[in-house]
Amino acid sequence: MRRLVGVELARFRSSRVVLAVLVVAVVAAGLFAFRTAYDSRPFSRAEVATARAQASMAAEAKRGDVKECLADPATMLGPGATASDCRADLVPQTTDFLTRAPLRLRVVMQNNGLHLAVLVLVLLVVAGAAFAGSDWASRSLRNQLLAESRRTRVWLAKAAAVSLGSLVIAALALAVFWVPLRIIAAERGLSVTAGSLVVWHIVRTLVLAAVAPVGAYALAMLFRSTVGAVGLVFGVSLAAEVLLGPLPVRGTGWLTPSHNVFAWLLGSTHYFDASLRCGGPDCKIRVLDMWPAGAVLAVVTAVVMALSWADFRRRDVP
Questions:
Q1: pTM above 0.90, yes or no
Q2: Beta-bridge partners for 285
Q3: Which of 312, 118, 128 is nearest to 214 (CA)?
Q4: Are 178 and 26 in contact (CB under 8 A)?
Q5: With contact defined as beta carbons under 8 Å apart, do 159 and 218 qualify?
Q6: What is the pLDDT of residues 227-254, one digit of tens each?
Q7: Domain spans of the chain, in order of start
Q8: Which H or E run includes 289?
Q9: CB of 318 within 8 A of CB of 139?
Q10: How do strand 285-289 and strand 268-272 relate by DSSP bridges?
Q11: Interacting residues of 54 by C-beta distance below 8 A, sequence separation 6+
C-alpha cells in the first residue's frame, strides 16, 4: 500500500494542474502578505506632517461651529453636553487624518487570512477533481488496474495522495503568508497576543485542505469527469445560497456550505438566515460554531466518499 501511495503521489506531483495550483497558491499568498504589510505600514514623518496640516485647516473651518457650541452646548450636541465637549467633538484631530490601521494578526486572520484560505481551498478542490478526472479522460485507469487489480487499494491510494499533496501545497501557501507577517509584526514592536488564534486558524485550514480535495476527488471518480465534479461543488454551493431561504422549512441557513466553511476556518461565524420569519433583520442573525460546522462538512464528505468508493468497486472501467 505504501508503494502504491508513493506512485500516486508522484503522479499527483507531476500533474500540470497541480503544478499550476501550487504556483498560483504560493504567488497569491506572497501578494496577500505584501499587500497586508504595505497597507498596515507605519506612518512616515511626511504623512504625519500632512495630517497635522489638514487637522489645522479643519479646525480653522470649524471655528464658527465651536463658538456656537460654546454658547449653547446642549442645543448643538444634545442633552447633557458641556462646553468641554465642543472642541473634542467638533474639531478634527491629527489622528482623524491618519486612517491606516496597524498590523493586527486577529484582524488579518478575519480578512486577508480568510480570503487566502478560501482561495487555496478552491484551488485544491480543482486539483483534486482534476487528478481523478484526468485518469478517466485519458483512459489510463484500466492500465493502472492491470498493475493493481484490487480496486479498493487503488481508490484509497489515490485519495491518500490527493490528501497529502494538497496538505503540502496548503502548508507552503500559508507559510508564505503568515511567516513574513509574524516577522514584520515583531520588527514593528506590535503585540502578537492573537498568535494562538492564528495558529489554530492555520491548523483548521490545513485540516480542511487535507479533506476537501478528497471530496472533490471522490466526486470526480463518481461522475468520471473533472468538469462535472467541479461544477457540482460550486453549483451546489451557489444554489444553497439562493434556494434555502425560500424553502418552507425554517432555520436552514446553517446548511449553507459557505457558512460552514467560514465557521470552521474562523472558529465561529455570524450569518443571516433568510429562512427565519421574525420581526426584524436582527433576529435573523445567527451564530454558527466550529464543531457543528465541522460535523456537517465531515458528514457530507464521508457520504460522497462512500458513494464514490462503492461505485468504483462495481462499475466497469472503460
A1: no
A2: 272
A3: 128
A4: no
A5: yes
A6: 888 888 888 777 766 666 665 556 666 7
A7: 2-41+103-314, 45-97
A8: strand 285-289
A9: yes
A10: antiparallel
A11: 92, 97
* Separation of alpha carbons 318 and 316, rounded Å: 6
β partners of residue 288: 269
**Grid cell for residue 147:** 498493475
Which residues contact residue 76 at a Cβ distance below 8 angstroms, ignoring those fewer than 6 apart? 65, 68, 69, 86, 90
220, 133 contact by CB (below 8 A): yes
Cell of 235: 453549483
Measured distance CA(130)–CA(225) in Å, rounded:
8
CA-derived radius of gyration, the chain: 27
Amino acid at 108: V
Q: Which amino acid is at 302?
A: A
List alpha helices for the chain, DSSP H: 2-14, 16-39, 45-61, 63-71, 73-77, 83-90, 105-108, 114-138, 141-147, 151-187, 195-223, 226-243, 257-266, 290-314
| pLDDT tens digits, 248-268 | 556 666 778 888 899 999 988
Q: Which three cell numbers stand for residue 191?
A: 503585540
DSSP string, 170-206: HHHHHHHHHHHHHHHHHHTT---TTHHHHHHHHHHHH
- The packing angle between helices 226-243 and 257-266, to 10°, is 90
Q: What distance in Å separates the CA atoms of residue 296 and residue 213, rounded to the nearest whole number? A: 16
